[in-house]
Amino acid sequence: MTVASPYAVELARMPVSTRVLPVAGSETHVWEYGDSGADARARAAAGTLIVVVHGYRGDHHGLEPVIAQLDHPGYRIVAPDLPGFGVSTPMTAAHDLDGYVGWLHEFTDAVRAESPSARLVIVGHSFGSIVVAAALGGTPSAPGSPDAASRPALAVDAAVLINPIAAPALKGPRGVMTRVAIGYYRLGAAAPEKLGYAILSSPVMVRVISVTMAKTKNRALRRWIHDQHHRYFSAFANRTVVLDAFRASVSNDVSEYARRITAPTLLIAADKDDITPIGAQHRLRDSMPDARLVVLDDVGHLIHYERPIEAAAAIDAFLEPRP
């Protein structure tokens, strides 16, 4: 039985449209929220275009609780399922960080062309924060030349990173848990195809991960969080996709690109995040040319589920004044 969302009322107020865009070989499914996503004329008139990039093994549903609080006139909010996850088909490129960065460039160019005069804001959560940071920072052309980019930096007016992966995951507060996860994914990779897929999509493991990450003591909210993970956390196209993306998620972090990110950036971090210690979030802010840090207390890596109202309020304050 589906558990009702605590944010269903807010979401029901927002117009939602869906479509499919061919990007980097992926049939990328896109959800657009707000009046400005209704048709071509409305998209062209949007004052602010917000592109939302979800985290590892999730899909567009994950950030809907935050999106539901951003129902403002003139906002066009675009939330795709990443290639290979949700209902989007895989890319032709590898599903590593470089592949996702290339896809994000192409996807952003496509939706920005529809709203050419809009302020462009890009939002990334968790693994999405790494993809966004790598796109904003550009790709070094060669070792020893960190300021020269072989792929130009994605040009945006502002960026928001929610639960940013500010340091290597193996050095996080639960580095041991990350190593256990690596062993789990290696087991899924070593097993025969069908068995490996079953291991990687195991409801038992999904529940263990969900219980570990949830910090709220609200039973109803915890029940809904577990239901969300049960419904969407194993919606990946195949074993290769989920393994490639996992390697990218634990082999990279936002700090690698921080000094090259010149766009004004809001970091929304949690004091009980099991993946990144709060000290690393402060160091990340200090290493970026133009960054603000908002820390939410008594929450972990699920800000988008447990504290979306506060996260949206921080985004609103960061983006004021609205056009």
Automatic annotation (TrEMBL):
Alphabetized Pfam families for the sequence: Hydrolase_4
Alphabetical UniProt keywords: Hydrolase
Protein name: Alpha/beta hydrolase
InterPro entries per the UniProt record, alphabetical: AB_hydrolase_1 (IPR000073), AB_hydrolase_fold (IPR029058), AB_hydrolase_sf (IPR050266), Epox_hydrolase-like (IPR000639), Hydrolase_4 (IPR022742)
Species for this entry: Herbiconiux daphne
PANTHER family from the UniProt entry: HYDROLASE, PUTATIVE (AFU_ORTHOLOGUE AFUA_2G14860)-RELATED (PTHR43798:SF33), MONOACYLGLYCEROL LIPASE (PTHR43798)
Domain of life according to the entry: Bacteria
Domain spans labelled Serine aminopeptidase S33: 49-307
GO molecular function, one term: hydrolase activity
Coiled coil (UniProt feature): none
